[in-house]
Amino acid sequence: MSDLYQYFQNNPGRLIHKWLHYFPIYEHHFARFRNKPVTLLEFGVFHGGSLQMWKQYLGPQAKIIGVDIDPQCKALEEEQIEIIIGDQDNRQFLADLGNSIAPIDILIDDGGHRMSQQIATFEELYSKVAANGVYLCEDTMTSYWNRHGGGYRNPNSFIEYSKNLVDLLHAWHSKDQESFNVTPFTQMTDSIHFYNSVVAIEKAPQQPPSHQKTGTLSFSN
Ligand SMILES: C[S@@+](CC[C@H](N)C(=O)[O-])C[C@H]1O[C@@H](n2cnc3c(N)ncnc32)[C@H](O)[C@@H]1O
Questions:
Q1: Which of 63, 100, 204, 221 could be a cystine partner for 190, CB 3.0 to 4.6 Å?
Q2: Which residue ranges form the domains of the chain, and what is each CATH number?
């Protein structure tokens, strides 16, 4: 059993609500940040338990910041854990937040799960994630739910929005630069990972890709 899942199962702290299949995903993307002086920002504090879990998992040098619309959450602050009250739907709030806490090493969007919130949070804060950080949006199954502003193949859903990011990842190879070209996203993104209900985006500065041939010819033509 992984450290994180073990902590969750034996939770000594406040209430946490997570889908069980997310735990290997967290380990895969977050393990490299353990015991380093990192900043984790999570939208969606709920009862504060996930913030305590990240604190324990990442270690004593980590700074954990939670954001929630519910003012009651402010009372859940403790050593290493800061809580900011605000609305994920408010782009000005998100922009100010990003300017005040960047760089963010790990950003987890587990807030309201509506399309407008997931897209606004990504658009306002992706550039504030550290050059080698990770952005993880969870509960993206809401992209398929009308009541969250989604619906199957709804062009306004976060999943459809993320599919466009897949195109941008490949923009180095565009043969039609007027309609499809390299953007800052292309230049700062290493990979996009689609899981059942999680999208994780790994950042790393990119150079124009190059290729080469090695070895000897097998045929004359
Ligand atoms: C799924 S719960 C978070 C669960 C928590 N991260 C955990 O793992 O235990 C979602 C939280 O998002 C908050 N929320 C809902 N709408 C929001 C909004 N517009 N801005 C910020 N937080 C919001 C809710 O108050 C709630 O506490």
A1: 204
A2: 3-203 (3.40.50.150)
